[in-house]
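Subject: sequence -> structure tokens, single chain

Hey, anyone have a minute? Need the predicted structure for the following. Not urgent.
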Amino acid sequence: MSLWDWTLEAYARPGVPEACLALQDEHDLNTSFLLWAVWAEGADAAVLAQAANAGKVWDSRVLKPVREVRRTLKSTFPAVDDGAREGLREDVKSVELRAERVLMETFESLTENRRGGVPALAALQAASRAWGIPAPDEALARLASALS
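Reply:
Had a minute. Here:
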């Protein structure tokens, strides 16, 4: 199963969206990177580092700016029609989703035939360290538990 298809299934599980958003918003981690690490079941340290470097650049230059625009458009603007603003917000949301998919396709290309059977929590801990922002184990454990 492709990473994207696996991610869509995983994100539909109870607790996964909330755990991902907490890791993103409270701990500044990239959830695409974390989910990829679980899917890859233990990419080696060199691949984790390569993916983290690519992900950080994409995150700072593409995902965060697009996400900020989407979140900004959640509020009303004087003299701007709410329907038009909401329509634009939905367009930006689609762009954000496409940007996440491009990043995940990049991650997937780094892990061909590299799935190693590492448990989800261990994969998340390694990914968090590779990202350079070790999240609290309990926050990572919430995601690992929701994914199982």
